[in-house]
Write a structure and sequence with these properties.
With about 325 residues, the chain is mainly β. The two termini are about 20 Å apart.
Length: about 325
């Protein structure tokens, strides 16, 4: 496998001393600056409602992390749009500020791994109530920071009527526009040219008003990627924007592929791997809360020529894998042919 998993995985495990992270720490967003690695991880305790938070840990070497506080860096806001959960953060820096996209629900999802695949709990509502409340669907919001420790919630980025997650911002403007990847679960069928949920892309002039039409960017084509979604923030390389994405097969196993998008027009896929570059193999990747096996990266750091890929294992632990960036780009281009 091209990505080499760290022998010391998991790099972060549940902490029984803090109720809010006593059962789950996974799907970490990542940032590197001034000699420090920052890991923003999804966390939850063993409460039946399953409230979900975001914690923060730091490291000098990218492998050995220490929590910065016994409190979350971001939590659900009571009686607000994200009152149930804040999860799966992705972080980029645009200009001098840091932008974190995070998935949320209006109510806690319950202990979803005990239900059928992709189902959550939802309280009863009148049939005239908004769908987002009736079905407790997942959406995505934006938070900002000036210092990587204190975040201000800005508001939702996606339509309330859509289950729309895996939202990722590009780390810079391209031809005067901001770009966003997203995965609207309801965009399926002949009218959307995809039978299963896929990766879509849209642009904005101001980071909050995403009113332009979305374009289908990438849909499943191999047996390991029936359903797909974006994973890590795009990394600028000389060969294009590097994007890691996940594919889900018939047995609900999550594996990771990679592609290169045009630097000038990120709606164009230049190269895309036919084979996955990361899959569940270890005990914690195959036998956590999700018994069928999940590797789910949400953080990526390029340090010199080394690419650090931070991923959740079976929705319960944080792990890291590394590779040489040039070797990965060569593989993507070769495997696309």
């Amino acid at each position: 496998m091209l990505l080499k998993k760290f022998e010391g995985n998991p790099i972060l495990s549940p902490n029984i001393d803090n109720q809010w992270e006593s059962l789950v720490v996974c799907n970490p967003g990542a940032w590197y600056e001034n000699g420090k690695f920052y890991l923003y991880y999804r966390a939850a305790g063993n409460d039946e409602a399953h409230h979900i938070h975001i914690g923060l840990a730091v490291s000098d070497d990218g492998f050995h992390f220490n929590r910065v506080s016994d409190k979350p860096v971001l939590s659900p806001t009571k009686d607000n749009f994200d009152a149930g959960s804040v999860e799966d953060p992705r972080i980029v820096k645009i200009g001098r500020e840091y932008y974190m996209t995070y998935a949320f629900r209006p109510y806690p999802p319950g202990q979803y791994w005990k239900y059928k695949y992709d189902q959550v709990k939802a309280p009863e509502h009148d049939e005239l109530a908004p769908r987002c409340l009736r079905e407790n669907i997942g959406n995505t919001a934006l938070a900002m920071s000036k210092d990587l420790f204190n975040f201000k919630k800005v508001g939702r980025l996606t339509e309330p009527s859509l289950d729309d997650r895996d939202v990722i911002l590009f780390p810079e403007q391209i031809n005067g526009l901001f770009y966003m990847l997203h995965r609207p679960k309801d965009y399926i069928g002949a009218i959307y040219d995809t039978e299963y949920p896929a990766i879509w892309i849209k642009s904005s002039k101001d980071l909050m008003s995403w009113n332009t039409p979305s374009k289908l960017l990438l849909k499943g084509r191999e047996s390991w990627e029936i359903k797909v979604g974006g994973n890590t923030p795009p990394v600028r390389t000389s060969e294009g924007w590097l994007l890691l994405y996940h594919g889900v097969d018939d047995n609900y196993v999550y594996r990771i592929g990679a592609c290169l998008l045009s630097l000038e027009d990120p709606t164009v896929v230049l190269y895309r791997t036919r084979h996955f570059i990361l899959e569940p193999e270890t005990e914690i990747e195959r036998n956590g809360l999700y018994k069928w096996g999940v590797v789910f990266p949400t953080g990526i750091v390029l340090r010199d020529k080394t690419l650090f890929v931070y991923y959740g294992a079976s929705d319960q632990w944080c792990c890291v894998a590394t590779c040489n960036i040039d070797e990965l780009i060569t593989f993507i281009k070769t495997d696309s042919k």
